[in-house]
Amino acid sequence: MSAIPVTDTYLEDVELFRAMTPDELACVRRTATRVGLDHGQWLFRQGDPAERFYLVRGGHVRLFRLSADGNEKVIEIVRPGQTFAEAVPFMREQRYPVNAAALGTTELIGISNATFRNVLQTSTEACFRLMADMSQRLHRRLGEIDALTLQNATYRMVNYLLALPDPGADAPGGTIHLSVPKGVLASRLSITQETFSRILHNLAREGLIEVRGAAIRIRDPEGLRAFGRD
Which terminus of the chain has fewer CB atoms gathered within 10 Å of its CB, N or C? Predict the structure, then answer.
């Protein structure tokens, strides 16, 4: 893993930093680093001291925990433009609560927790941006808990497919691409890989989707929504 200083203006386009003044952004950028990871390479492990949170610039990161017998549960798949671990600076004990590893070749920007906290102490608007981001994540987590406890595996799968970027933009015929391995997605949805494949097969048999490797064409978005509710 290599780290180099951040010198470009990429941070200015990220929602979390848009409320910052040019001087505040410059302060954050001075202590930020660019991190490159190969596929499968770990960024940090659960319990490691946390001095930075991260922004994904390219590739994907899987956040996961391991059970006592070594089974992996994917908590989140972080995509380009998204940040993760930004709540850690406000925890009493600043340690990462999950593991993080790259899915494919991945580029990250690491933000200093200390610098970010200092900026927030002088910027009310930046604090509100962070609170809004945290509120949205809490809302998503509540939705996931609801789905896991009240809905079946097909419902979770259908909702995931429909939530991917522009699934029905050209409907019928909108195509989405699974950018991470199916086994990782299955863990994220709390189902087995076999169940994941079986649901895809059933949806294709019903004429709702067409699967070609990692590419999935949504043939009937409304029918897909209705199928997931059955």
Answer: C
